[in-house]
Specification:
The chain is of the alpha+beta class. The protein has five helices and ten strands; from the N terminus they run αβββαβαββαβαβββ. The strands form three sheets. Strands 4-5-6-9-8-7 form a six-stranded antiparallel β-sheet. The longest helix is centred in the N-terminal third of the chain and has 9 residues. The radius of gyration is 18 Å and the shape is elongated. The N and C termini lie far apart (38 Å).
Length: 192
């Protein structure tokens, strides 16, 4: 029994706290990294109801390291979208996007409803995202992120940073997705 409990704790299914007891943890949402899909699409395929809370929607100057993804100077404003993403009413991810929209393409704040996928909205306007580069990094929740995700300060987080491209490798979106490590995990299948 001790060995089974140790394996369940190591697998993230339970948490043992000395002097308090053993607690069952929520099952983590597993997201595959073998294909390009939006958070909304991925959660809907799992039968989850997806909603978002729009925290910021504005044009702003990006930090220099983000402007470099677009081969632009940091003096050019990009569309900044900051959302809190929910699955079945549980906060799952903080999503930050900087968009460099093609000429003639405009997104209005009212178009990004609580149930709208940003990628689906872009596709409806003729902007098709075809490829992406991503990195995954571990960090700890600061006060702001912990408050948004309703987790304790210092909880492990997974930060996925990436750039999405349209035709001819033109960068459209820089995104940073911050997930609670207690609720979310990524998996990838590789072959040799």
């Amino acid at each position: 029994v001790r060995r089974a409990m140790h394996e369940m704790e190591h697998g993230g299914y339970i948490q043992r706290i000395a002097g308090k007891g053993t607690f069952i943890l929520r099952t983590k949402i597993n997201r595959q990294l073998t294909r390009m899909s939006s958070f909304t699409q991925d959660m809907q395929e799992r039968g989850k109801r997806v909603t978002s809370q729009l925290l910021k929607f504005e044009y702003r100057l990006p930090p220099t390291h983000i402007a470099e993804f677009f081969d632009r100077a940091a003096e050019e404003k990009l569309l900044y979208i900051h959302r809190l993403r929910y699955a079945d009413e549980m906060p799952i991810a903080i999503n930050i996007s900087y968009l460099k929209l093609p000429p003639g393409i405009i997104i209005g704040e009212e178009e990004l409803t609580p149930t709208t996928s940003l990628w689906a909205l872009l596709e409806s306007k003729g902007v098709r995202l075809l490829e992406t580069d991503k990195t995954i990094e571990a960090t700890l929740a600061n006060e702001e992120r912990a408050s948004l995700l309703q987790i304790p300060v210092g909880t492990p987080l997974l930060v996925v940073e990436g750039i999405a491209y349209t035709i001819n490798h033109v960068p459209i979106e820089y995104a940073q997705v911050i997930n609670s490590g207690e609720r979310y995990k990524y998996s990838i299948h590789l072959e040799r």
